[in-house]
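anyone seen this seq b4? input:
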Amino acid sequence: TLDGRNYALDGDDESGDLGINVTGRLNITIKNISLIDDFGVGIPFTSVNYSVIDDVSLRSSNGGINLASGSSHNQISNITITLMTANGISVISGSNNNTFTNINSGTISDLSDAGISVASHNNRFTGIITNANGDGINIVGTNNTFTNFFNFLS
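predicted toks r here
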């Protein structure tokens, strides 16, 4: 478990840098981080399964949270994402059966790309609010469910 105890993690604005990089792990938890700021990608999960990201804010990066290479059965909740130059959340490369809850209060905002981009299957999204995105959501995969999804255009 990585408990940020409400501290911030501040990068140096380099597009290749990663905030919290997790690869090939099971059952990890990242929680209580007040701000992950100025990284290429805030939290990339690559081949990470049965893990949790909870109560994290991300800002001013190329991407917020990326689930790739079969990152499945994860729980992502209570996330704030602002000022990204790419997708706020990307679910790609066979990353299936993940649950996203309370990504809300207009918190995925001012993105030049999609608030959420989903190119995988059987993911569940509940309580999602996007604001001022290129696309609120971009879906390529199948059998993804969205409950209480709102996209506000500016």
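The chain has a mean pLDDT of 89. Residues 16 and 40 are 5 Å apart (CA to CA). kinda curious what u guys think
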